[in-house]
Design brief:
The complex is a heterodimer of chains A (152) and B (455).
Chain A lengths: L30 E5 L3 H13 L3 E5 L2 H11 L3 E4 L8 H10 L7 E6 L4 H6 L4 E4 L4 H19 L1
Chain B lengths: L2 E2 L4 H6 L4 E2 L3 E6 L5 H12 L6 E5 L4 H9 L14 E5 L1 H6 L4 H12 L3 E5 L1 H6 L4 H17 L3 E6 L10 H5 L2 E10 L2 E11 L9 E6 L2 E4 L18 E2 L14 E2 L3 E6 L5 H14 L4 E5 L4 H10 L4 H4 L5 E5 L7 H15 L3 E5 L1 H7 L3 H16 L4 E7 L7 H5 L8 E9 L3 E10 L9 E6 L2 E4 L1
Parallel strand pairs in B: 3-7, 3-8, 4-5, 4-6, 6-7, 14-18, 14-19, 15-16, 15-17, 17-18
Antiparallel strand pairs in B: 1-2, 8-9, 9-10, 10-11, 12-13, 19-20, 20-21, 21-22
Classes of the chains: A alpha/beta (152), B alpha/beta (455).
Chain lengths: 152, 455
């Protein structure tokens, strides 16, 4: 005998934000650059962001993150604060001070309780780890929406 | 810090409010100690619409057994099974391709997005790995994944305390709770210990628990209470209810003190205790009789033989009778019950009949001494006046009086003796009354039809 299973189709399962994943903001495959060194967090971010319709690229450290941001021109950069070399707050400040990246939104996703520091460094949003996939997707959608409104 | 409730208030208190959320916790113990029951109890306590709880079984045919035995427990809500609590069996993966286990966990996490993950048995995963390094790689991957995601994890396993320093699971874990079952005579005793709880204050030591249809019921280890800031010792006298006994002590029996009444079976200990409680009722002081010998029927019979009306004595606000069998006596549970009844019922006098039963149920002499000290202090800080009855072997009090170290915790000591000649003669004497002059001579004790008399 197998025990009854939960429904698996994510489109019909209410998520934690009260909306279904299928109702997410239209993403048109927006590119997200994730600056993160933890392989487990990276795996989960890739899965949840791709499932929500985003394209995801990675950088392992702050310096590489800025280099890739220049080249890829992502819509959003998600960065941890604790990174080898250049830290996530410096990544945030550098992006904010660079006119070529003025449309790039920055989300700080960190193990540190550092929302104030992140916002002071110019981040558009802050989330604390561990990774809550519904809040992550919701926040990314919100940043994209704000970004679109600002551009238009 | 957010915490997960266990479904048992006492265990939550032991854990400082519950298991910290987003941690990895190990529930360890030998087979049959109650690990799975605790895990399931937590599942049903925390299940709700929205994100499900994922129960990962690693043994074959676990579902029939699990679902079958779960229905025996009061916490089970069958409607939650399969919706709010989902079961997955990964035994096949473990057997065929153990190194793919982390991948399987990632699939399950992303598929269900569970708020709690239980792996039962987690130890089985390690046992089936080809070698130690493969297990370390797997453990690192599973641990990393579960730590990265917003979920709280329980690894259930038949680990013993000898494995604590040897296995890497325990280094990864944020919390470790050890469930232990030991045999004392013909009965089993269970207790639990919190061996580790990162970033959280838990209550140290062994906490007893039992398993019943309600699940796991724990009791905090009874410890010495702190002195309340408004505590003031009272110099009021209280009556013993026995003619001429009160005059034998210069200052009388003081409120908030403890009196040890030691004597052999039949010497009149229980009768003295009942007189003490009756005097309290007459003076408007509710009393509590905690007895491990006299059942309610036997107590009513005793009161009737003293020409008292049991329905008057045992009414609400008079004497509260807390009876529990000495066979299954659990001392910490008894102490908590006594304190709760004192606070609920405004109890001013307590008789414990007999502390010798508590001694037999204590794990060892040290625990008994600590326990009794904590109990007498708990009564003293509440200004509750107490009588502790102690049954001694033989006609004269011997080893039992001092050997168990009860005497030094008592403010007063009454010794009862039985002299067997042609007639049975009972005597009473005061051998200690802290801070007070007293008559230390032996006096006759007579149990008459209408009560006790001291000659």
């Amino acid at each position: 005998m197998k025990a009854p299973r939960a429904r698996r189709d994510s489109a019909s399962r209410p998520d934690r934000g009260g909306t279904s994943l299928a109702q997410s903001f239209v993403t048109d495959n927006a590119l997200i650059l994730v600056v993160e060194r933890d392989p487990h967090v990276k795996k989960l971010e890739r899965f949840f962001l791709e499932q929500a319709g985003f394209a995801v690229e990675f950088a392992d450290g702050g310096v590489q993150g800025l280099e890739r941001a220049h080249v890829l021109k992502p819509r959003i950069v998600i960065t941890e604060i604790l990174l080898p070399g250049l830290d996530g707050l410096s990544v945030c400040r550098t992006i904010r001070s660079d006119p070529a990246m003025k449309h790039v939104r920055v989300l700080v996703l960190s193990i540190l309780s550092a929302e104030r520091r992140a916002l002071d460094a110019g981040a558009d949003a802050f989330l604390k780890k561990p990774l809550d996939d519904a809040r992550l997707v919701e926040t990314v959608n919100e940043l994209l929406r704000k970004g679109s409104e600002a551009r238009s | 810090m957010n915490r997960l409730k266990t479904g048992n208030d006492e265990l939550d208190a032991i854990l400082g409010g519950g298991f910290p959320s987003n941690g990895i916790h190990v529930l360890m113990g030998s087979p049959g100690t109650g690990k799975t029951i605790l895990a399931e109890q937590m599942c049903f306590t925390n299940a709700s619409p929205g994100r499900p709880i994922l129960y990962v079984a690693t043994f074959s045919e676990p579902m029939q057994k699990l679902v079958g035995f779960l229905q025996e427990f009061g916490f089970t809500v069958p409607e939650k099974l399969g919706t709010e609590i989902v079961y997955e069996y990964i035994g096949e993966n473990v057997l065929t391709d153990p190194e793919r286990i982390p991948e399987r966990f990632q699939e399950l996490l992303t598929q269900y997005r569970p708020k709690i993950v239980v792996v039962d048995s987690f130890k089985a995963l390690a046992d089936l790995m080809p070698d130690r390094s493969a297990w370390r790689r797997t453990l690192d991957a599973i641990g990393g994944l579960l730590s990265a995601y917003d979920t709280t994890t329980f690894w259930v396993g038949e680990y013993s305390s000898e494995m604590l320093s040897a296995l890497p699971e325990f280094a990864v874990a944020d919390g470790i709770v050890d469930l232990v079952r030991t045999q004392r005579g013909t009965r089993d005793e269970r207790f639990l210990r919190v061996l580790k709880l990162r970033g959280s204050a838990s209550l140290p030591g062994e906490h007893p628990f039992h398993l019943d249809r309600g699940g796991l019921q724990a009791f905090r280890r009874f410890v010495t209470p702190g002195l309340p800031s408004d505590y003031e010792p009272r110099l009021e006298r209280v009556r013993s209810g026995i003619a001429h006994l009160d005059e034998m002590v210069a200052t009388g029996w003081l409120r908030g003190t403890g009196t040890l009444v030691a004597g052999p079976s039949g010497s009149g200990k229980t009768s003295i205790g009942l007189h003490f409680l009756k005097a309290g009722v007459e003076d408007g002081e509710p009393g509590l009789l905690a007895s491990f010998q006299e059942s309610p029927v036997q107590l009513a019979r005793m009161m009737t033989s003293l020409q008292w009306k049991p329905e008057q004595m045992l009414r609400k606000g008079a004497i509260d009778h807390f009876y529990t069998s000495p066979v299954e006596l659990q001392i910490d549970a008894v102490a908590h019950e006594i304190v709760q009844r004192i606070e609920r019922g405004g109890i001013r006098r307590v008789v414990i009949d007999a502390v010798s039963d508590l001694e037999k149920s204590a794990r060892d002499a040290l625990r008994y001494r600590d326990f009794l000290y904590s109990l007498t202090q708990a009564l003293a800080v509440r200004n509750v006046t107490a009588m502790l009855l102690l049954e001694t072997a033989g006609m004269l009090p011997g080893r039992g009086l001092t050997g168990s170290e009860v005497s030094y915790m008592s403010d007063n000591i009454l010794v009862l003796e039985m002299l067997l000649g042609d007639d049975l003669t009972r005597t009473i004497r005061i051998i200690k009354s802290r801070g007070s002059r007293h008559d230390g001579r032996r006096h006759a004790l007579r149990i008459a039809e209408d009560g006790i008399e001291v000659g």
